[in-house]
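Hello again,

I reread your note about wanting to compare the complex against the isolated chains. To keep things tidy I'm splitting this into two emails, and this first one only covers the full assembly. Below are the input lines as submitted, including protein chains and any nucleic acid or small-molecule components. They are followed by the predicted structure of everything together. The single-chain runs will come separately.
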Amino acid sequence: MNSFGAAVAIARKDLRSELRSKEATNAAVSFALVILLILSVAFEPTGDETHAIAGGLLWIVFAFSGTLILNRTFARELQNDALEALIAAPIPGWALFLGKATSSLVMMLVVEVVSLPIFAIFYDVSLVWTLVPVLLLGTWALVVVGVAFSALTVNVQLREVMLPLLIYPTLVPALIASMILTGNLLDGQAFAGDNLTWLRLLVGFDIIYTALAVGLIDIVLVG
Amino acid sequence: MVEARNFMFLFYGLTAAWLIVIGYIFYLVQRDRKLSKELGRLRNLVGDGERTER
Amino acid sequence: MREKAIYILGLLGAIALVANMYNIFLVLPDEANQGAIYRIIFFHVPAAIIAFTFFFVALICSVAFLAFKTFKADAIAVAATEVGVMFATINLVTGSIWGRNIWGIWWTWDYRITSMFVCVLLYLGYLIMRPAITEPTQRATLAAVLSIFAFADVPIVWFSIRWWRTQHPGPVLETGGLPHNMAMALLYNFLALLAIGTALVLVRLRSEHVQREIESLRRLALVEA
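Full-complex prediction:
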């Protein structure tokens, strides 16, 4: 089995396991709905000011509910020494990382696809197709950093607390770009001018952190 | 006078900076003390162990 | 040997600092618009530069550890990061007080102070994660990786937040161009604070050495028990 096939196999394994138990996605979707509710209490949902910050609110929902999925990425392998088996397997670290990242991406996209219509209804925004690239790029940023740090913290005490503490400051540039882009796109703007700069920043962030994660994942897992 | 008020804030600013430095030195000293005590305890423990082995 | 280095550095730094204080407070004139508060710049700006210098040192040592597995490099990394966070905090606090005086608000979302805040959070995470790993080799390895991730983020954070604040402008802490005598005072203070900072790193380094000895003794005690 070549490396790419190995990555695909790992992604499929994770997704199949998740499909059967639905533990992480159920929790993440429920959490997303709870956050949407709380935010609608904090900010009057149909007010003008809230419409202006809608982009930011959406990514708060994704970033926080995403942690539940990202935490599980490597933690799910702790039982029965599955993690050791994965590390010992003759597949390169980058394949393992990409497999995990892909499955996490799919799970997060499921959560987003479920929460988006509800968000649109609660906050009275009309969704546009231009959101799709931003969703993909922004979620990939979340996933790349989240999976890398999930591997980093899998054997650390207080893992569930450590992961958000570490990933959110790191994700600040990607979150800023995603939030502003989403806000602008929901407002009806197109990918021009300033929005292009933000898009480039997001793409640049994704490239740099994917490269870093792929390069360092072996050291993180094996030591 | 504006200048007098400004000096007050300058004083606050520099005091804050120095408090942070002194606070950090305090933390270093406390850490040192705690570690030295632990080191002494462990040295005794291991030393006793070696003695009882003979 | 190290003891002497600490004392000499500390003393030199302290003397330089006192000499600078004389210059800063009694010789240099007030600035036209800001009055006396601008003098805080002589601590505010060097603190930031020193913080990033130490973060860079931590990066070099982290890479060195991953390449050569020398624990000394790991020790310097954590010491430098800790002192760096201290200087960054000084930068944030003095900047905040400066802003409170000039603009009347404690936090202005000026892009520099905001970026520095994110950097402090990044490295605080590093300092908090370290004690959560008990095995020394694993701790050093994971911390080294984290240090690399953190330093890689520093330029991205600065650029993105600056671009963000360009779109939502607000009060900015003006540091601007400085006349020659003030620039010299800034340089001297930078050197003095750097000396003191290095002395603090050396002290922290010694503390780290003791901790490692404790850990090895603990393992020894466990084996003998």
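For quick reference: Chain B has a mean pLDDT of 82.

B.
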